[in-house]
Amino acid sequence: MYEKKDKKPVESKPKLTTLAELGEFGLIDRLTRNVRHHHPETIKGIGDDAAVIDMGDKVMLLSTDLLVEGIHFDLTYMPFKHLGYKAAVVNISDIAAMNGIPRHMTVSMAVSSKFSAEALDELYAGIIMACEKYKVDLVGGDTCSNVKGLAISVTITGEAKKDEVVYRSGARSGDLLCVTGDLGSAYIGLLVLEREKSVFQVDPNMQPELSGYDYQIGRQLRPEARTDIRNLLLGTGVKPTSMIDVSDGLASEILHICKQSGVGCKLFEGKIPIEEYTRELAKEFKIIPSVAALSGGEDYELLFTVKQEDYEKIKDITGITIIGHMTSSTEGKTMVTPDGKFIPITAQGWDGMKDTKGNVAL
Ligand code: ADP
Ligand code: MG
C-alpha cells in the first residue's frame, strides 16, 4: 500500500541582510567591527576623512575614494578629462578636510574594452592637471580589465604636523559651525545635466542646452578642493575644532561631526550660503534651495567648527559663513527655519549608494 511519506520539512533559510537595509555607514560599521590595530603609530583609523599615521614629528594622512560608472558618473555628459580631474580632487579634498597638505597619489582602474586609449589619455590628462594644480605626485596604481564600464580608485597621502590635524570628533557645545564657499550648486548642475540628457535621448539631433549654467555644471563636473583654507585659517590664527568635507550633503556631514564629537547642533537655514542663480534654478526644479544644499552633496566645500572666542577672527572672512553652533547632545540636531520652526536634521543625502539619478543602487 502506498504510504504517504511525511512531508520533508522545509529548510528554513537564514534571513540575509540586504545592503539597502544597512545603508553605507551601517555596512562600513558592520564590516569593520572586528578591525584592530597592530601598530602604535596608527593614531586614527576608520571614521574620519583620512587615516592618521604617526611619522615622528609629522603625521601621514591616508585616504581612498572609488568612482564607479553609473553610480558616481555618467559618461553621457562627463568628459573624460573632467572625470580624471574630479577623481583626483575628491581625494585631495579629504586631505584638506584633515587640515593637511596633499602629497602622493596612486590611481587604479578597471576598464572595459569599450574604451579607447584616446579616451583614457583624456582621463589621465585630467588626473595630471589636478596633480599639477595641487602639487601631488602620482606615484603608482593598477590597471585591469572590467566586464563592463569604468571604475577608478584613487588613494592619496597627505602630511601635517601632529597638532595641526583636525578631526571630525573635536567639536564642543558652543562652538560655531562654519562652511566655506556655497552649497547646492553641484546638485543643481547634476539636475541640469540630467534634464538635458533626457532631451538628447528623446531626439538625438537635439544638442543639449548647457550655456548659462556654467557655474552649476562646473561645480558638478569639475569641483575644486579647498586646500586654500588651511593657509587662510593659519593666517588668522584660528584652528578649527572639527572639520569634514561636504561630499554627501550638508545634513549628512553635520550629523557625522555631531556623532563623532558627541554633540548636538543648531543650524540656521537662512544662513546656508547658496549662490543666487542656484537658488532660482532650484525653484525651477521644484526643490527648496536649502534642500539642494542639505541633501545634494558633491560641493567639496569644508564644514568646520571653531571656538566661540574665535568669532571676531572669523566673522569677516570672505568665503566663510557661520551657519549655526554646536549644542549639547541632549538638545538634538536641529535646523531653525527663517520663520522660527525647528526641524530635526536627518541625512537624506547621497550616501554613495545612489546612482547618478539618485536611485538607491543596491
Ligand atoms: P569620505 O566621504 O570622507 O570619503 P566615507 O564616508 O567614504 O568617507 O567613509 C567613512 C569612513 O569609513 C572613512 O574613514 C573610510 O576610510 C572608512 N571606510 C569606508 N569604506 C570602508 C571599507 N570598505 N573598509 C574599511 N573602511 C572603510
Ligand atoms: Mg570626506
Textual characterization of the structure:
- With 362 residues, the chain is an alpha+beta fold.
- Helices cover 32% and strands 24% of the residues.
- A seven-stranded mixed sheet has the order 8-10-7-11-9-12-13, with helices on both faces. Strands 1-2-3-6-4-5 form a six-stranded mixed sheet, with helices on one face.
- Strand 4, helix 3 and strand 5 form a beta-alpha-beta unit.
- The longest helix is centred in the middle third of the chain and has 18 residues.
- The protein is globular and about 55 Å long.
- The protein starts with 18 loop residues before the first helix and ends in an 18-residue tail after the last strand.
- The C terminus is likely disordered.
- The chain binds adenosine-5'-diphosphate and magnesium ion.
- The site of magnesium ion has 6 residues, from strand 8.
Attribute tags:
binds magnesium ion; seven-stranded mixed β-sheet; 10 helices; six-stranded mixed β-sheet; binds adenosine-5'-diphosphate; 362 residues
Structural topology:
Elements (H helix, E strand, L loop, with lengths): L18 H13 L10 E3 L6 E4 L3 E11 L11 H17 L4 E11 L5 H18 L2 E9 L4 E12 L14 E5 L4 H18 L11 H8 L6 H9 L5 E4 L4 H12 L1 E6 L7 H9 L4 H7 L6 E5 L4 H4 L5 E9 L4 E4 L5 E3 L18
Parallel strand pairs: 4-5, 9-12
Antiparallel strand pairs: 1-2, 2-3, 3-6, 4-6, 7-10, 7-11, 8-10, 9-11, 12-13
Helix pairs in contact: 2-3, 4-5
Bound molecules: adenosine-5'-diphosphate (ADP) and magnesium ion (MG).
The site of magnesium ion has 6 residues, from strand 8.
